[in-house]
Amino acid sequence: MRNEHSFYALDRHAVLTGSDDGYPWYASQMLALEAGEVMRLRMEKLAHGDADCEQEACLMVTEKIFAAFEAGASFLAGKPVAAIVERYRQHVAANTKRLTAAE
Questions:
Q1: Tens digits of pLDDT across the chain (103 residues)
Q2: Are 91 and 69 a contacting pair, CB within 8 Å?
Q3: Residue 55's domain spans which residues?
Q4: Separation between Cα atoms, residue 80 and residue 61, nearest integer Å
Q5: Do the Cβ atoms of 86 and 29 come closer than 8 Å?
Q6: 80: left (phi over 0), alpha (psi -120 to 50) or beta
Q7: How many distinct structural domains can be found in the chain?
């Protein structure tokens, strides 16, 4: 039902007015792209099988659990979705910086 007229009108309104209607569409798309780059960097690191490969795998899981709890707490505290997405982007940026510094 995506092509239903009412949905189309909402999409058209968002595009023409630049309104995000409370959801940060651009920031979330950038988060997806940036997270994909971090996944690529991590997979390269894990594929090399270096001595710090196991540490990277543990760090990856620990960071994800911490970020999920942080996002949940922020949501329950009433923070806007844009702030939560921006905080995730900060975590991803820090991972990118750390993983590219090792190259």
A1: 454 444 455 455 556 665 555 678 888 999 999 999 999 999 998 998 888 888 989 999 999 999 999 999 999 999 998 899 999 999 999 999 999 985 6
A2: no
A3: 21-101
A4: 25
A5: no
A6: beta
A7: 1
